[in-house]
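Apologies for my clumsy wording, but can you show me some protein sequence, whichever is easiest, together with the matching structure tokens, please?
=====
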Amino acid sequence: MVEDKQTAVASTQSVAPVGPQGTATAKKASGKKAESADKTLACRYELKYRLTESRARAVAQFVRQYLPVDRYSKLQRDGNYPIVSLYLDSDNMQLCKESIDGRQNRFKLRIRSYTDEPDYPCFFEIKRRINTVILKSRARVMHDDIVPLLAYLPLGPRDYNVDMNALNQFQLYMSSVQAKPKVLIRYMREAFEGESDNRVRVTFDRDLCYQVTDKPVVILGGSGWQRNPVTNDGGVVLEVKFTGTYPIWLSRMVEYFDLKARSISKFATSIQDSCLLRFCAPWLAG
């Protein structure tokens, strides 16, 4: 089990909301409307790699030649900001099994947050894979909206902008598999991103932890967190995302550092590890 000290560190780092849209789009108690722009890469290609910490630092130095540090990493002393996601699935873990089996057309449902501060937004997200293309939609809501929305209740009038199409789609996908909260996953992210037409985003994810839960709560702190073996012993998950052609400099990076792309699902590996530890259905462990 992750020590309370490490839990406290993640919780402390989450006090200043700096994740994507955590600062510019936050709805303060004053009632100001959140900015409607969504700067995530909604349609993209995505490659993943597992690196040692030493190699991750070398790759990050290479990336700095081509991409600036993203605006959220800039706000952190060590360049890493916290992310926590509540993943939903059916009782028979259909979405998890499709990920493990490598099904080409599949989706994941999650509610993402970057802080435990209640006055800042969280995001209902659908991440779909269609062959090699990743499609992502997200709807910004507040933490006290989570429970009614997971009960399929409509969202009442709010003093901030909401993408109702994305929210309705989330509820439709949730209903299609009768999805419910299954696991919380958190980690620290260092990110680089360009602003050209062919947008490229490179992220390094560290200290991956999970917590099996059936509660509709998205929280970074608390006890009961388990380490995901993917990032044990200083492992780092490198993700490369781009919207157009594959940049030549990325090819040089992959060749120079001898990087081997692989399938890495934070959701599936967390569920598999939890099954090995007998926190959930053992039939998934194989």
